[in-house]
Specification:
The complex is a heterodimer of chains A (249) and B (374). Chain A has a domain at 3-90 and 163-248: Rossmann fold. Chain A has helices spanning 42-50, 74-80, 97-109, 115-128, 146-160, 176-190, 230-238, 241-248; strands at 3-13, 16-27, 31-35, 56-64, 67-68, 82-85, 92-96, 139-140, 164-168, 196-201, 214-219, 222-227. Chain A is an alpha/beta fold and 249 residues long. Chain A is globular, with a radius of gyration of 18 Å. In chain A, helix 4 crosses helix 5 and helix 5 packs parallel to helix 6. Chain B has a 16-stranded mixed sheet that branches. Chain B has helices spanning 85-93, 323-330, 336-352, 358-373, and strands spanning 54-59, 65-69, 97-102, 112-133, 138-159, 164-172, 178-187, 192-201, 204-213, 219-228, 233-242, 248-257, 263-272, 280-289, 295-304, 311-319. Chain B has two domains: 3-320, no CATH class; 324-374, no CATH class. Chain B is mostly beta strands. The relative contact order of chain B is 0.11. Chain B has four helices and 16 strands. The chains are: A alpha/beta (249), B mainly beta (374). The A-B interface holds A 50-53, 73-75, 77-79, 83-84, 86, 89-90, 92-95, 99-100, 103-104, 107-108, 139-140, 156, 160 and B 323-325, 327-336, 338-339, 342-343, 345-350.
């Protein structure tokens, strides 16, 4: 049983305050959707929690099972059980997918997997996400299409098995087939029941495949409304206009 | 900027076998301005007294002929004429030369390894090597520089029609060595030349690989890798002279620098003369600056004197490790030091894979690992 607890989080980029007091709690077995218009600060929340150096936390706290994530380095947060699936996964020249994943698994599990076990695990993981096995030898994300990059993110999610996963617009840029494959991956990850998911999205489309327990509307750098899955239906019909007007008022 | 008024290349302005034809450099000349002359220990002004210098050992493939010859051997100095003072000094001063011949229509069954071992700190010397690959022959050559010396030499690669020569040159000197070297490849019709330069050790290494073509169809790949530590000056000056039609060249040099006073210099001159129609050339230099206090000078220079090229381009970039690469790896739990190691390793990996000799590939890989562990 794990809990990610975000309390009154304020985050700035340079002099500009982007997050203005975010409160959010994600527990194992729960899926939370954060929905909001472009520029509302959704991705800032994801990156700030993961520890990207561009974002400065000016006040508030982020606890994972009571431990202060904000005092940890980026890699310590990941090893503590946090995972961020990125909207724009980074291309790392000269580092093969296989080498990258083995290094990540070794770091997160605290010991290097046996080569044979790793090969088996990787093969199964790639098959489940319909990733061409040849990708294992390619450079990480280099020359991957948008959809291939997102599948690769979910492959990492399934291999690293974090306590809490933050998925930042994992659905963006996916065609219907890729969206289904990626959603199935997320659902496999959720099915154990002892992981929590924070799903950041602009559109309701992915929520037809990955059913949220809670929906939060994000605007102006904070959560402005919270509810159940029915809130997503409301957004589907009415859009974000009501919230953006409120936020800028 | 009219092409007519521009000299073809400062590196190619004059050439002579006689050291007296070159004034002692002052450091203000274009071709010497990056080199700290005071650290050349007299190689540039004739004050470096010959004191043993180096020992040259050749471990040859059975098909290859190896000779040690005197200064008067008529074959020497035909493929290359010295283009600067130190090169001419070396040509005027060497006592014995090594001549390696790959007979025509012969494929050497294993690499020929020439080990140039410095005799010790302060030992000065001059050398000359001629590698002659006769028509339709094929060979792999390793030049392995080790130990310590103050050493200047010229290496001629004469690659005849239809022949192929692959060279790996390792500058793996001790910390106090000084080495100034010219490697010149002269390519005949449809000849193939692959050069892989790895420069890791030495206080000052200045290596000038150059290529000329005598007939169409010549194909040259010049690849280089260097790792510059605190206080080291590692300089590579490339010159590809396209003077005949339909030849190809590709230059790819990558370096990493770390530590106070680490200095890399890369000069990439490519000339496509008016008569060299159908030339295809590309040159690239990348420098990864890992710490403060390190400096990379990178000067690509492409002079095109014909409108009929198949391809011509150059790129140069020097920068720090990309924070986004490191963040991505760290976000997957990989600690900073390991992430850094992976990214730097990746920066070089695609180059190292091109080394044809497995033992050398392994040696270069572990040398890079050792540099990263410093």
């Amino acid at each position: 049983m794990s809990t990610l607890e975000i309390r009154d989080l304020h985050v700035a980029v340079g002099d500009k305050e982007i997050l203005r007091g975010v409160d959010l709690t994600v527990r194992s077995g729960e899926t939370h959707a954060i929905m909001g218009p472009n520029g509302s600060g959704k991705s800032t929340l994801a990156y700030a929690v993961a520890g990207h150096p561009k974002y400065t936390v000016t006040s508030g706290s982020v606890l994972l099972d009571g431990e202060n994530l904000l005092e940890m380095s980026v890699d310590e947060r990941a090893r503590a059980g946090l995972f961020l699936a990125m909207q724009y996964p980074v291309e790392v020249p000269g580092v093969s997918v296989s080498n990258f994943l083995r290094s990540a698994i070794t770091a997160v599990r605290g010991e290097a997997p046996k080569l044979r076990d790793f090969a088996k695990e990787l093969k199964a993981g790639m098959e489940a996400l319909s990733i061409d096995p040849a990708f294992a030898q390619r450079n990480t994300n280099e020359g991957f299409s948008g959809g291939e990059k997102k599948r690769h993110e979910i492959l990492q999610l399934e291999l690293l098995k974090p306590k809490i996963a933050v998925l930042d617009e994992t659905d963006s840029g996916l065609d219907v087939d890729a969206l289904r494959v990626v959603s199935e991956g997320i659902n496999r990850f959720r099915s154990s029941g002892d992981t929590g998911v924070l799903l950041i999205t602009h559109y309701t489309r992915i929520l037809r495949y990955v059913k949220p327990d809670f929906v939060h509307v994000f605007a102006g750098g904070r959560v402005v409304e919270a509810g159940g899955p029915e809130l997503a239906d409301k957004l589907e019909n009415e859009g974000y206009e009501a919230y953006t007007a409120k936020a800028s008022a | 900027m009219g092409l007519e008024t521009k000299p073809l290349s400062t590196l190619h302005e004059k050439s002579s076998h006689d050291v007296a034809d070159f004034p002692v450099p002052t450091g203000r000349e274009e071709e010497w301005r990056f080199t700290p002359l005071s650290r050349l220990k007299g190689l540039h002004n004739g004050t470096a007294a010959v004191t043993g210098g180096v020992v040259v050992d050749v471990e040859a493939a059975p098909e290859v002929r190896v000779e040690t010859v005197g200064r008067d051997d008529a074959r020497l100095g035909k493929a290359y004429t010295p283009a600067d003072r130190v090169s001419a000094q070396a040509y005027s001063s060497f006592e014995k030369a090594t001549v390696v011949t790959v007979p025509k229509m012969t494929a050497a069954s294993r690499p020929t390894v020439i080990t140039v071992r410095g005799s010790g700190s302060g030992a000065a010397g001059y050398g000359h090597i001629l590698v002659s690959v006769e028509p339709m022959a094929e060979a792999v050559l390793v030049l392995d520089h080790r130990g310590s010396a103050v050493y200047a030499d010229n290496v001629e690669f004469d690659v005849a029609e239809g022949a192929t020569l692959k060279v790996v040159s390792l500058q793996d000197w001790d910390d106090d060595a000084v080495h100034v070297s010219h490697h010149h490849a002269r390519l005949g019709k449809d000849a193939t030349f692959r050069s892989f330069v790895v420069t890791l050790g030495g206080d000052l290494v200045r290596l000038s690989p150059s290529v000329s073509y005598t007939a169409p169809g010549g194909d040259a790949d010049l690849t280089g890798l260097y790792f510059v530590d605190a206080g080291q000056h590692l300089e590579h000056r490339l010159l590809v002279d396209h003077s005949v039609p339909n030849c190809r060249s590709n230059v790819t040099y990558k370096g990493a620098l770390q530590g106070d006073g680490a200095h890399a210099v890369w000069i990439g001159d490519v000339i496509i003369r008016a008569e060299a129609e159908g030339t295809d050339t590309y040159e690239l230099n990348r420098n990864l600056i890992l710490t403060d206090g390190a400096r990379a000078d990178s000067v690509p220079n492409l002079e095109i004197l014909t409108g009929e090229v198949a391809g011509a381009g150059h790129a140069s970039a020097s920068g720090r490790l990309d924070d986004e690469h490191i963040f991505y790896l760290q976000a997957r739990g990989i600690p900073f030091d390991e992430a850094r190691r992976l990214v730097i390793h990746g920066f070089f990996a695609q180059l190292i894979e091109r080394i044809e000799v497995p033992e050398i590939r392994e040696r270069v890989l572990s040398a890079v690992e050792a540099e990263l562990a410093r």
